[in-house]
Amino acid sequence: MARASKRLEVLEAIVSIIERDGLTAVTLDAVALETGMTRAGLLYHFPSREALILAIHEHLTRSWEQELEASAGNTSDRATDAERHAAYINTCARAARRVELLLMLESSDNRQLGDLWQQVIDRWAPPAPIGNDAAELDRFISRLAADGLWIHEALSSRPLPEQLRKRIAARLVAMAAGPVEAEENLPK
Q1: Which backbone phi and psi does 124 adopt, to 5 degrees?
Q2: Which of 16, 18, 58, 79 could lock onto 72 through a cystine, CB 3.0 to 4.6 A?
């Protein structure tokens, strides 16, 4: 087996361990057992548990960015704001995985790991409004709602039906792109 595919096998094993047993269960021994590798073979690819954890964060953020690009039909630097925001919302509306939520939560205490996730968010999600622009506010509210939908799906024992998630996403995309009430009609 080629080195790249062995590395991918290890990363997929880490995802399985986290999904099944949680993040604290990721140890060199557990990953070696899950993959059938020797500890020495695993250490060849990942010299420490910290290297394993960094690699899984990098792997999942790269996968997430690829999903966003597929949804937008372009890379973040070539997509329009509307395409990026729609891709973010639609990707959040897909079934969430527990592993991503656990890793994002863990990354909030580690700047290096948190930056991996934040960089993807910064490229794709509508930013917090700086001024009083109602359209910027609507885009940001649609982002917060999409984030909430994603968290709901990651935590719920009763995921929403796919059609309902798609309808919600379509409404949020319209909110992010559509006209808004005049600023004077919004509560102060």
Answers
A1: -115, -30
A2: 79
d(CA 30, CA 17): 8
Query: What region does 6 belong to: left with phi over 0, alpha with psi -120 to 50, or beta?
Result: alpha
How many C-beta atoms lie closer than 10 Å to residue 169's C-beta?
21
Q: What span, in angstroms and rounded, lies between the C-alpha atoms of 133 and 24?
A: 44
CA-based R_g, the chain, Å: 19
- What is the chain's pLDDT, residue by residue, as a tens digit (188 residues)? 446 688 999 999 999 999 999 999 999 999 999 999 999 999 998 999 999 999 999 999 999 999 999 999 999 999 999 999 999 999 999 978 889 999 999 999 999 999 999 999 999 999 999 999 999 999 999 999 999 999 999 998 898 999 999 999 999 999 999 765 434 444 45
Domains defined for the chain, CATH in brackets = 1-47 (1.10.10), 58-183 (1.10.357.10)
Task: Name the residue among 164, 127, 139, 128 with its Cα closest to residue 149.
Answer: 164
